[in-house]
Amino acid sequence: VLAEQAASIALPIDDTAEKIAACIDEASRLAAEHKYSKALDEIAKAFLLDPLNETIQKYEAQLQKEFHDYQEEMRQKQEEESRIAALKGHIQRAKDFLEHEAFDEALAEVAEGYTYDQNNRELVVLEKKIQEAYAQWQLRQAEEEKQKQIQEMVLSAKKFLSKHEFENALMEVTRAMVLDPENADIKALEQEIEASQEEDEERRR
Across all residues in the chain, what is the average pLDDT? Predict the structure, then answer.
């Protein structure tokens, strides 16, 4: 009879321990899947069965720490993904601006990119490429401007020649030659003016 009584008393206690163990097992499984909120719900169920149980308290503290670490890891991962995406965006926009010869805008995008990664190799290479392209563009602009001035001087010289204003015509040709000393067309025009001037003087004589 005593043995039966002992068994009937022991059963509910063992049953509680089993239920607590089951809750902890389920909490462990959920935590392994990073389902920490659900895992903590299982620990709450275990606490209802035995509010002062030290094993449950220790496990809950460990679970809370794991949850906090996981959240921090996810936050850092998200930050890193955002940083990489922003950096790629600045690089792509810099390339697009460079393609359209918008050099200031391209360099501004590179500068923004450096705020996300100041030693980024792709940015360093791209910045150099933009600066070189800008220098080439400036040379082209200067050359175009020079050719435009030469054309204006040649046109002016031809107008003076048609009016037999030879000195003025030669002055315009000289100005053009200063800008482009090897230009064959300017030399030919100079010879043409000088020949016309000689013919004119012959006629007068």
Answer: 91
Rounded Cα distance, 93 and 143, in Å: 29
20 close to 54: Cβ distance less than 8 angstroms: no
pLDDT for the residue 205: 79
* CB 150, CB 182: distance < 8 Å: no
Structure tokens at 124: 């360093």
Put simply, whether the predicted model's pTM sits higher than 0.70 gets the answer: no
The gap from C-alpha 61 to its chain's centroid, in whole angstroms, comes to: 43
**Distance of CA 122 to CAs 14, 100, 112, Å?**
65, 19, 13
Counting Cα atoms < 13 Å in the Cβ hemisphere of 128 gives 5
The closest alpha carbon to 153, from 197, 145, 138, belongs to 145
Segment 37-65 shows an average pLDDT of 94
- As a whole number of Å, the CA-based R_g of the chain is 44
In single-letter form, the type of residue at position 23 comes to C
